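Quick one: structure for this chain?
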Amino acid sequence: MTSPSTRSASGEPPVKGARLPRRARRAQLLESALEVFVAQGYHAAAMDDIAENAGVSKPVLYQHFPGKLDLYLALLDQAVDKVITGTREALESTEDNKQRVAATMHAFFSYVASEQGEFRLVFESDLTNEPAVRERIDRVTRECSNLIAHVIHDDTGLPDEASQLLAVALVGMGQVSARFWLQDRLAGSDTIEQGDAASLVAGLAWRGIRGYPRSDDPA
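Got it. Here's what it folds into:
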């Protein structure tokens, strides 16, 4: 799927290798690199492969990204921001906490089910021994759980440490179950529909988290 930022003025996807404004070229290179990294992983992917997929020369690719790691980190930053934004939007979509849990789980499943496979960079990277990559991956758990922990703390009055731990558990439940569901679907198993799967996991999460008393409940 072509990003809107890589389309020509006529609205048509640009011809690979055609002259583009710098910002549009960068977006196109990122999109082409994502396809290669998702298909091959970091270690097997080569800048030659990415340049060929983008329809540009290697010098053009290096004008935008000094090396393969720089390109990978730029993609990872983009992917991480998308997960965090999706979580924030889910939590802000309603004041009803049951619906917040459901919206957050649906956000995780939608992200993992995306046809671009961007989630593999965040949750299944083969470069987690690289500190810069590890820091970005950890940022997903940290920032998503921070957002959820604020809601838990405000609603239950639990200490920050307890709210944070429960939030991390919910984030883990969302991303692990979504990946497991997708793996089954890709394997051709007779798996549950995406929306039903997200709702099922949300139901489990809600049955657990609702057991903590609201901060305004009478003693």
